[in-house]
Design brief:
Shape: globular
CATH class: Alpha Beta
Bound molecules: S-adenosylmethionine
Pfam families: Methyltransf_25 (PF13649)
Structural class: alpha/beta
Protein name: Methyltransferase domain-containing protein
GO molecular function: methyltransferase activity
Number of helices: 8
Largest sheet: 8 strands, mixed
Distance between the termini: 23 Å
Number of strands: 8
Organism: Thermogemmatispora tikiterensis
CATH superfamily: Vaccinia Virus protein VP39
Number of domains: 1
CATH topology: Rossmann fold
Helix content: 25-40%
Oligomer: single chain
Radius of gyration: 19 Å
Order of helices and strands: HEHEHEEHEEHHEHHE
């Protein structure tokens, strides 16, 4: 398939122009953050596909909301006979990912702009593997069943869908915990959370049920964790990821009314200070759920 064939066709789930991602994806700082986060998380997850034994040698692979393309680019490099396509709503992120593919000389990967809350412009049974990581920042609960129904249509018999989502994690910093709590509450107010009370991100308990409800078989789970306490090898890179994310989330917190700009700024500064303290302890969790197309 070509990038031209992968243009968004429109649909009735979310208006095509609506952007629900809680960060402005066009910000250069978000692009840099996502690239760094991809390396951090893929390594902590144990690689590109730690749960799956093997892929068909000429596998067709789709990565949904791929960001700058780190996972898809690495898949194309590791599986030279595979054909990989990544789709993302942000045209500038897609342009960046395509430039990365060209500069690395990878001809088996391409990226296209597409809204994954709309019908996806690929033929039935096109893919052996569909991967999606960290969609909770823009998906509304009602978007998930539609997307997974589309994935059922797009997967070949026996094909695999693989979803990875996280919760915020736990730390010993009161300001960081308060910031996480505001983010959860903001997502709840924005109608983008499965959490009953807005106290957590809410997506992880839903991954396996959503896959089963969509008709996937042999649904399995694997948890992952990254320790980023002060003094650990992952502290600085995770701290950088979180403080940039917190900064980029300020407009979302103010827009949803969970805090004023005057309240958010000192809380942010306090969190940044506490995350650098020598007695800061932190762990971040995620869950991968995967299932098979009958
Ligand atoms: C947290 S990033 C995840 C990036 C990548 N999956 C990863 O794990 O490194 C979320 C991505 O979703 C994209 N996005 C937001 N809304 C979208 C939509 N409706 N359809 C497709 N992509 C979307 C954003 O542009 C952003 O790149």
């Amino acid at each position: 398939m070509t990038a031209a064939e992968a243009e968004a066709p429109g649909g009735d789930s979310q208006p095509a122009g609506e952007r629900t991602y809680f960060i402005d994806a066009e910000e250069a700082a978000e692009l840099a953050r996502l690239m760094q986060q991809d390396r951090l998380v893929t390594e902590a997850m144990g690689g590109l596909l730690p749960e799956l034994e093997a892929l068909p040698s000429a596998a067709q692979v789709l990565d949904l909301a791929c960001g700058p393309g780190g996972w898809a680019l690495e898949m194309a490099f590791r599986y030279p006979k595979a054909e990989v396509i990544g789709v993302d709503l942000s045209p500038s992120i897609v342009d960046y990912a395509n430039a990365q593919a060209r500069s690395r000389g990878l001809s088996n990967v391409q990226f296209a702009a597409m809204n994954i809350t709309q019908p996806l412009a690929f033929a039935d049974a096109s893919f052996d593997l569909i991967n999606a990581r960290f969609l909770a920042g823009f998906m509304r609960p009602q978007d998930w069943p539609r997307l997974l129904t589309e994935c059922r249509r797009l997967l070949k018999p026996g094909g695999v869908i693989r979803l990875t989502e996280s919760e915020w994690g736990l730390t010993t910093s009161p300001a960081t915990q308060r910031y996480y709590a505001l983010c959860s509450e903001a997502l709840k107010r924005a109608g983008q959370s499965f959490s009953p009370d807005g106290h957590h991100l809410g997506i992880t308990p839903m991954l396996a049920p959503l896959l089963r409800q969509a008709g996937f078989e042999d649904v399995r789970l694997r948890g992952g964790a990254l320790e980023w306490s002060s003094g650990t090898p992952q502290h600085y890179s995770t701290f950088k990821n979180i403080f940039v994310m917190f900064d980029l989330l300020k407009p979302f917190l103010v827009r949803t009314g969970v805090a004023s700009a005057e309240e958010v700024e000192p809380l942010y500064q306090q969190a940044v200070a506490e995350m650098q303290a020598p007695d800061f302890f932190a762990v971040w969790f995620w869950l991968t759920a995967w299932g098979r197309q009958p």
